[in-house]
Design brief:
Strand order of the largest sheet: 1-2-3-6-5-4
Structural class: alpha+beta
Radius of gyration: 18 Å
Strand content: 25-35%
Number of helices: 3
Helix content: 40-55%
Distance between the termini: 24 Å
Order of helices and strands: EHHEEEEEH
Number of strands: 6
Length: 192
């Protein structure tokens, strides 16, 4: 379970994050205000992802009649998502690049090489390429611990679009499911 919100599940996983300091007044934005605050490229990615989430179930219904077409369009969608995520992650203007260690619907754990303080308000851009998820959110540093690589941060989301939170939760559950399957396979093979 997440340290920041015991009601939402989180999972260990490597991912990239870009962090920018923001004014504390921007911590608790409404979903529409957060969408307005998104960088233009992120807003485009969010629109594409939202459109895909509405269209892909319709394509699944076509599978009986056009399964190959539905698979092709799904693969094209995944390819476009990966290219867009890669482009978004290359922002040289980001204040801080971070390595993600853990994520869930309520927050993230990050490794940074710059000092940040508890209470720091941040705009976060998260990239989970293995799950084809890119999320923009605002958050607040809730915990900091020093280590050999710099600092490990716990960041609690204060403003996140509901659809992005759903994507993070789904991605964390998919990773957990994969880990459980791998564990069961190791058990069957006598490794545990």
């Amino acid at each position: 379970m997440s340290e920041t919100d015991p009601g939402l599940f989180s999972v260990e996983s490597d991912f990239e994050a870009l962090l920018d300091p923001i004014d504390e007044a921007q911590l608790w934005l409404s979903e529409s205000a957060l969408t307005d605050a998104m960088p233009k490229a992120f807003a485009l990615m969010a629109q594409v992802t939202d459109l895909e989430s509405h269209c892909l179930p319709l394509l699944k219904g076509l599978e009986k009649h056009a399964k190959a077409l539905a698979e092709y369009l799904s693969l094209q969608s995944q390819k476009i998502d990966l290219v867009l995520q890669q482009q978004l992650a290359q922002d040289p203007n980001a204040h801080c690049h971070a390595r993600g260690l853990r994520f869930g619907g309520s927050g993230v754990t990050l490794q940074v090489d710059r000092p940040l303080a508890v209470g720091q308000a941040l705009a976060l851009r998260l990239f989970l390429p293995h799950a084809q998820v890119a999320v923009f959110a605002h958050g607040e540093v809730s915990q900091v611990s020093a280590n050999d690589q710099g600092q490990q941060l716990e960041v609690a989301f204060t403003a996140i679009r509901e659809s992005d939170q759903d994507r993070l939760v789904r991605a964390s559950l998919q990773i957990q499911q994969r880990l459980l399957r791998e564990r069961a396979e190791r058990r069957r093979a006598g490794e545990l």
